[in-house]
Predict the 3D structure of the following.
Amino acid sequence: MNSMMTMEEKPYPDGDIRSLYPAELRALAESLGEKAFRGTQLFSWLHEKRVQTYDEMSNLPKSFREKLEERFPLRHLEVVRRQVSAVDGTVKYLFSLGDGNVIESVRMVYHHGVSVCVSSQVGCRMGCRFCASTVDGLVRSLTAAEMLEQVWAIDRLDGERVSHVVIMGSGEPLDNYDNVVRFIRLVTDGKGYGMSQRNITLSTCGLVPKIRALAEEDLSITLAISLHAPNDEKRRALMPVASRWTIEEILDACRYYFSRTGRRLTFEYALASGQNDSARDAEELASLLQGINGHVNLIPVNPVRESGFRRSGKKVTEAFQNKLEKYGIHVTIRREMGSDIDGACGQLRRRYMSEGDMPV
Ligand code: SAH
């Protein structure tokens, strides 16, 4: 069989060579008439050394490099805006993709290292009422390479290794399942960027069958569930996805995730004044989560122009926390980062899109 035919019959996942696993690069090298080990070298240039051009891959034959250049041109994310918070040094990036779409990524420094919040889609189709990323719907999913590039670009531009990734930028990661899993495997490959799987958190609004599938991937990442309400009725008012799966179905999938991975879950709960922050809500939430291996992360809701939600006050937030703790639920309150730079949840891209441009 003609080896080129094989390549065309089995198209690569998203057309970007940086989305390929080492074994796939070895097969690609062979299909281009090279020895398999050339694929291993290629992986190292792309993922470990992270050079920007084929020219720099000095131990690869020139003819191979030329073929690669022709078939898999390397396009890189471009920085459209870079805003640094005067409050805590958080950096918010607006990147443009090869097709002109823009995405945002955030770099945050914690005592445990540098964390990057990665977008998984341009826009989102989940429709959560409080979220800016979803206002104009889904444009497209990102490739694994486009997610990797957010980490690599920030590593390069800020000159420091990224130790943690949270997949909490724009998009619903489990609505882009294959590319996101590929991204996680690639960024944690010991011969590539080499991040620890334990330092990755994936946040989902709760696509139940995908949570179950993820449990079977044999990954040791943290799963965060965007719960935001203590019962289905309230959740349906905030999140359209709640009409598809009940909280009980989500929690069953979470128990399964814990049984397969041994990883404790995080339940995200954005407190919105008068919506989900009463003492009764806290009690309901506590009874819901009894016996589950996980903790609640309380997030003061970020006011988004389109949504009209207001954040709960300090007293209400503390009372909510105390109530949960009284029932034995472990609670953390998310520290707000980059509040002065549209730090939250798709707001930079929205401002950029609606104003065409904005002051640097
Ligand atoms: N689609 C995924 C991940 C992206 S959002 C998810 O739903 O989990 C990451 C987190 O930010 C989610 O918990 C989301 O509900 C929350 N979020 C979105 N908009 C917010 C806002 N305006 N204020 C506070 N949290 C928000």
